[in-house]
Amino acid sequence: MDDTKITARGRATRQRIIEATGEQILASGIGGTTLDTVRAATLTSKSQLFHYFPGGKTELVREVALWEGQQLLAAQEPEIHDLSTYESWERWRAGLVDYYIGLGRWACPIGSLATQAAMLDPELEATIAASMRQWRDALASGIERMRASGLVDPAADARKLAVSILAAIQGGLVLSQPERAAWPLEAALDTVLDALHRVALPSSASSLPR
């Protein structure tokens, strides 16, 4: 739906539906989220839902994926566009943990959608893949900046390191969920950031913060 063709009040209602659907998907998965449960959670009518999302549940879930991807990157500001020092990485780590755990989100919305998307909707899968690539590339750019300033070995593969960091986040959240505690995510992040320290140049290794 063209967002420019609806009123400010309509945009607020549409956004409220997207956010409520995102929370339901995070709690119950795509299969456990229906238009009826969304209507009940948002106090909207069937006609309202189809007014804002003519494509029904498929369109709504795609919009949730877009919004969650934007939210995830916004939560990592401003460090996601720096990451040129180890201090910046530490601030990024703390902010990311706060984003997930502080909001009581014991799973990654994008990661959760990714595990369900392939069998449901190729367009949804493509949207999630694009979000993951954008996240990976932002992390890799930070590693490249460190490499350019001599903090990381020139031979280090920035993209592979970035993928390892993303894998640590997703795995850490999976382990944090049943514990209802931050420490598994923190441990996973600390381990992968230690790996980043290990590819530091010898001349800078002695001055790295621990």
From TrEMBL:
The keyword Transcription regulation applies. This is TetR/AcrR family transcriptional regulator. InterPro entries: Homeodomain-like_sf, Tet_transcr_reg_TetR-rel_C_sf, YxaF_TetR_C. It comes from Frondihabitans cladoniiphilus. Keywords: Transcription, Transcription regulation. Residues 107-188 form the Transcriptional regulator LmrA/YxaF-like C-terminal domain. Gene3D superfamilies: Tetracycline Repressor, domain 2 (1.10.357.10). SUPFAM superfamilies: Homeodomain-like, Tetracyclin repressor-like, C-terminal domain.
